[in-house]
Design a protein that fits this description.
This protein has 117 residues and is an all-beta fold. Helix content is 0%, strand content 54%. The chain contains no helices and 11 strands. The strands form 2 sheets. Strands 2, 4, 5, 6, 9, 10 and 11 form a 7-stranded mixed beta sheet that branches. It has a 4-stranded antiparallel beta sheet with strand order 1-3-8-7, with no helix packed on it. Strand 7 and strand 8 form a beta hairpin. The chain is globular and about 40 Å long. The termini are far apart.
Length: 117
């Protein structure tokens, strides 16, 4: 199983980006998917998550600006990021896991988002 994240880049403050995370198989079914980010010198943090049933959660810092979604038919997850701020600058990672199957956990490689002021 592989997760491939892409879609990061350099954008000015106030702009938008839409990273995506493509999976090599049906790893989103019966799973919790999430986007995490890690800024230089900081710990990795959860940005947003979505269950296979469509329930979403967001970090307070991105509520109202970011939207997580998943297309199970395409085995792809997205993170629509609007009104970007310099503090959103980080490497963004995708993850999928099944809560009752500890061995089922996969991470994608990071995609870098840089927001200039």
């Amino acid at each position: 199983v592989q997760l491939q994240a892409s879609g990061g880049g350099l954008v000015q403050a106030g702009g938008s980006l839409r990273p995506s995370c493509a999976a090599s198989g049906s790893v989103f079914s019966a799973a919790v998917m999430g986007w995490y980010r890690q800024a230089p010198g900081k710990e990795r943090e959860l940005v947003a998550s979505i269950t296979s049933g469509g329930t979403t959660k967001y970090a307070d810092s991105v509520k109202g600006r970011f939207t997580i979604s998943a297309d199970n038919a395409k085995n792809t997850m997205y993170l629509q990021m609007n009104s970007l701020k310099p503090e959103d600058t980080a490497e963004y990672y995708c993850r999928t896991r099944r809560p009752f199957t500890p061995t089922f956990e996969y991470w994608g490689q990071g995609t870098v988002v840089t927001v200039s002021s």
